[in-house]
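Work Package 3 (structural annotation) set out to generate three-dimensional models for the target panel prioritized at the project kickoff. During this period the team completed the workflow that converts sequence records into discrete structure tokens, so that structures can be stored uniformly alongside our sequence database. As a representative example, we reproduce one entry of 615 residues exactly as it appears in the project archive.
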Amino acid sequence: MSLSNLTRSAALVLFGLCQQSAPAQNPSTTAPTTIPVRSETMVVLGSAAPVPLAESPRSVVVLPLKDKTLAAETLLDFLRQDSSIFLEQRGAGGAQSDLVLRGGSFEQTLVLLNGFRINDSQTSHHNLDLPVPLEAMDSIQVLEGAGSTLHGVDALSGVVDFLTAAPDHASLLLRVAKGSFESNEESMLAGATRGRWSGRATASRNFSTGFMADRDYRNEDASAENWLGSRLGITDLLFASSDRSFGANQFYGPYNSWERTKGWFASMRQELGSRTVAAFGYRRHTDEFILLRDNPSVYENNHKDGSWQASIRHTVPIATPSLLLFGLEADGDSIHSNNLGVHARNRGAGYIDLDLRPAKRRWNLSLGAREEIFSGGAQSAFAPQLSGSLRITDQLKLRASGGYGFRIPTYTDLYYSDPTTIGNPNLKPESGWSGDGGADWAPSAHLSLSVTGFYSRQHNAIDYVRANSTAKWQAVNLSGLHFAGVESTLTWIPAKSQTVRISWTGLHGAQSALNGLLSEYVFNYPVENIHAAWTVALGHAFAISNAVQLAQRYQQTVYPVWNAALTHDSGRIRPYLRLSNLSNTGYQEITGVAMPGRSITGGFALQLGHDTAGR
């Protein structure tokens, strides 16, 4: 079916359903006028509507952030808890990092902010340029495996959604810290709530002179978000901005480079009754790159890209709690660059998803399909998915899923050229089928185990290859790339004051079409990745956390990294101490880019207000 027919049909169905199933004005169907506060963990990825984590048929990891931010330097510290994620970090402070999921390239994971696309159309190296500060985040959700059916282009290996949440009381929190390499951290969080309205403003800054020459950085972020309840439903308005400058020594080759990225993001989500949600977002991003910092006239790039997105979703109860979801989406992006040129493109999509959940909830089944067409009508993608789970006992759940993901090349993939790299305007979109099966076992409130086996096979995978170390990297499509692996997570609570969490992923990849060529990105994946964390509550709101990562990249030696933190998370004054890379390991997550050695950061947060009277 073509997109035009699918879109027309979906629009007619939506209109008809809206007319036939308009809810009566009663408490069971009227949209809420106050901001809801959920008491259980809900999954928003891979399902037609939010479902409790225990009922999700997909492999989803939920990483809570609330009241845990003092122990972390950046959001990356939380992402490392999921061993299926491998972060290709280029330095401290979160200046620039790539995210690899289940062996896919850093371009094959879709990054969302409250469900809105953040992936950068210029280059996926900027996908983690999140404009919202860490303090504003409530949780991170990770969908492992193809997610293009519900979430669209770029969700080939998985989806990562960074979520904020409305405050439930008025507060003001200030934080300051100093550390090794002349690093500084400063942040502010202010939240308020009055009746049907809640709002939060945040700002943060961290900077350092760097642990080596030309590895300094300065990051600044700010955001303001407002939630308002009305008879229609919840209105969510967000505006955020970021400014990051950093020394990029060895980041893109044997050069003492420098780079600065800036951006802003605005979004609006509006509930239209209890079953329909409309959303619109816009992202603007700029990238200034200087090849030789001490001689900018040799080579400099300036890129400006923008992207917009609009969507509408409508759900129809079939037999409570089963749902039928219809969605329409439109997206566009453009770029103005002295290197890449001036380009623009648009996309449109229609999708449908059926979630069957019997009343007793011993099993569930989800099946859906999406058709997406790219500007010009020359190319389109059809992405089906099927997932389900079966609860054998109250303690044991089996699940399985399979689906199709796809990604279109970035403008850098297509048009870039510098002394070491050249793009390819003839690149085809990459795609892949993936499937997984696993079990979740929780014999008691103190112990749980999750194990998943997965497999993916990609078509026209995009990588940069070269014949030898002196040739240029050339963007190409590869065939025959596939990955297979096992991931597992054990959570043990030996006492009320202690939690032990061990996550392990083993991965094997194969590529039959390199024919002796060297690969720049595809074969940087970890064959083994282990993350072990132990948290101890000492009493009086003090806590110690230890985290050890053991990683072995493809054809590289294994390396350990040990981080620890001591925090006090209550009261007016909340001191904290972070110790990073206590093992003082010399390691690289990107070949040729050294990571910092041992460092220490100390500071405190000051709670200046906490008023629940306005709720």
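The CA atoms of residues 233 and 263 lie 30 Å apart.
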